From TrEMBL:
Provenance organism: uncultured Nocardioidaceae bacterium
Protein's recorded name: Uncharacterized protein
Length: 59
């Protein structure tokens, strides 16, 4: 994040189970359980992200 022209890095601890529980309460999203498990419980690394999305910027 940029703040007043300086980079500021943060590390926020979250309770994964509580976050998943909150996401799956949204009634109008049929894929909510899959999304919550895939995105919030994911163990994907930065290398996985580059493999998945790197071709979009010419890598």
């Amino acid at each position: 994040m940029l703040r007043s022209g300086h980079v500021e890095l943060r590390h926020t601890l979250i309770h994964i189970e509580a976050a998943i529980s909150q996401v799956v309460r949204v009634p109008d999203d049929p894929d909510r359980q899959f999304w919550a498990e895939e995105c919030l419980r994911s163990d994907d690394s930065d290398a996985d992200a580059i493999r998945a999305f790197g071709s979009r910027d010419g890598r």
